């Protein structure tokens, strides 16, 4: 009896093709992602090595190098990776790139960078899906707001703590600050430095568009919330140093009617028989009835059976 071999049915062939297609749909993206990570991983070692060499340069010179040629480090000679130093004031980092992943950038921030110190970031072109997958999914990055490479890039924190740091434009002119991407003139009572607005400290003031706050001149003070101007010291007080937050009162037993005084030389001693009541140092008044003053400072009571004379300078029998 002859046995006949049974071939595949059409249904079985269709199922087999579907299985192969499903496997390919899973395997191909996984393969592409693996290749993507493999390429980008070659960027990391030289970037980290140059950043470490920058720290050594800082210890020896007190600042970071501006050119790679100044740093004692040997990097792999490859046409596919590029490692560059930042040329910014507030952000000191080393950036690595790979020609096979043009939309992704690997940044290692220096330990003494003013912003994002000791952070590692991955930045991805918003229009590059592979770069975005690499930074967020492939490398496990956490999205943070802004980018050092411009508005067309997204930033992902790979290592370190970004804290309250944020990306600030450095191209704003003096006296202007980065206000959500727009350079805005600093208001009076503030100043703008390196693209950031800051409040004037007590004892200083500023006008609009200032790049620094000026200390209050002698004879004036500033200690309130309004740091747009300094106020002259009132009568009975003076300020003999710049940047005063309060005015000094005339010494006990002396007065002044001058405003904006710059030294205690304006304070005039009270004559005998008088004193300066309370904290005010604007007028001398006679001691109360039955009291006298011999130095113009302190009044003392007369003994029993006596009272003050007309000038309140000595006690006389009643």
Notes on the protein architecture:
The structure is a single chain. The longest helix has 32 residues, at 10-41. The chain has helices spanning 10-41, 44-61, 129-138; strands at residues 81-85, 93-98, 104-109, 120-125, 142-144, 153-159, 176-179, 182-185, 190-193, 196-199, 204-205, 214-215, 220-221, 231-232, 237-238, 248-249, 254-255, 268-269, 274-275, 285-286, 291-292, 300-301, 306-308, 315-317. With 318 residues, the protein is an alpha+beta fold. The N and C termini lie far apart (160 Å). The protein is built from three helices and 24 strands. It has four domains: 39-159, no CATH class; 176-215, no CATH class; 216-269, Tumor Necrosis Factor Receptor, subunit A, domain 2, CATH 2.10.50.10; 270-318, no CATH class. The strands form ten sheets. The protein has a six-stranded antiparallel sheet, with helices on one face. Strands 7-8 form a two-stranded antiparallel sheet. The chain has a two-stranded antiparallel sheet with strand order 9-10. Helices cover 19% and strands 25% of the residues.
List the helices and strands and how they pair.
Blueprint (H helix, E strand, L loop, with lengths): L9 H32 L2 H18 L19 E5 L7 E6 L5 E6 L10 E6 L3 H10 L3 E3 L8 E7 L16 E4 L2 E4 L4 E4 L2 E4 L4 E2 L8 E2 L4 E2 L9 E2 L4 E2 L9 E2 L4 E2 L12 E2 L4 E2 L9 E2 L4 E2 L7 E2 L4 E3 L6 E3 L1
Antiparallel strand pairs: 1-2, 2-3, 3-4, 4-6, 5-6, 7-8, 9-10, 11-12, 13-14, 15-16, 17-18, 19-20, 21-22, 23-24
